[in-house]
Amino acid sequence: MFKNITNLQIIKIVAATGLSIGLAQLLGLENVTSAGIIAMLSVLETRKSSLTVGWQRLVSTVLALALATISFSVLGFNLPAFLLYLIVFVFIAYRFDMRAAIAPCSVLVAHLWLSQNLSLAFLWNEFLLMLIGAGIAIFLHIYMPSQQSQIEDARVMIEEHLRMILSSMAQAIYALDEKSQSRELVALEKDIKAAKALVYQEQENQLFRQIDYDLHYLDMRQDQVRLLMTMDNNLAACRLELTEAKLLASLFELTAAQLSEHNPATYLLEDIKTMLAHFRERDLPKTREEFETRAILFQLLTDLTRFIQLKIDFYRDYSMANE
């Protein structure tokens, strides 16, 4: 699923490194390879993370160079001075969640130590190395292909898988078969989690776009899958009569047939209410087994009601939002 993004990121890392070193050489800077290393470290998985880390590193560079200048000026160009800078800078970086800046900024400070040069020109040289490396990494992240089509394909696949599971459960109920759908349900939940990861990545890459619909849709389907897991366990412990099995199986089939993303399926709740009324009119259970079966049956209908209500609530919320 993430193959294209990985390949693109490899290209961006190589391009950012080469462009940064080339630009640093063109400007006649010293320690030009550091610009390439900074660029390499600044090309992250998403546009938002690269932008955030790049900005943090630029701000941190000013702070690091200022701290190093003070430390080397007071203690001289030696290890204690470098360690003093490191103690203060690392503390501040952790305090303000700028840990990603510690390594690249400290490399720049090491240049000051090794060259024993605190002139404004050399400090500007070090800042430009960070500006070039982080800036080119951010620039290359301007292009980030949308994965919305993959998200939409995932939604279709999840619906098809869920419809298949509901139909299989209906067939098992009708045949009075105790076949479990647990393996399929676990696999479907993994698919939903993978789709949510893709949505989160898209959210990080598209800075000015809200994708709440996709997340809420997948959350709704995940809640439905977990309800089906509970129902699947209850069906394994239930001994239905043929009449009950036919009625319950028909509800599962209707639910599968009306599973579409854009179908509110409100009338299914009326069918469940009718079935509940039918069971309430029946004679009270006479044996322990009949009592347990009746209790599980009511729980199944309650869970199926909740399953459908989740979809109705989702449809209502987004229908109202689009009016």
UniProtKB/TrEMBL annotation:
Transmembrane segments: 21-44, 64-93, 122-143
Protein keywords: Cell membrane, Coiled coil, Membrane, Transmembrane, Transmembrane helix
Predominant cellular place of this UniProt entry's protein: membrane
Any Pfam family: ArAE_1
InterPro entries, A to Z: ArAE_1 (IPR010343), ArAE_1_C (IPR021062), ArAE_1_C_sf (IPR038323), UPF0421 (IPR052984)
Gene Ontology CC terms: plasma membrane
Compartments in which it is found: Cell membrane
This protein's record includes keyword Cell membrane: yes
Domain of life: Bacteria
Coiled-coil intervals: 178-205
Membrane topology per record: Multi-pass membrane protein
Domain Putative aromatic acid exporter C-terminal: 150-311
Protein name: Membrane protein
Organism: Streptococcus merionis
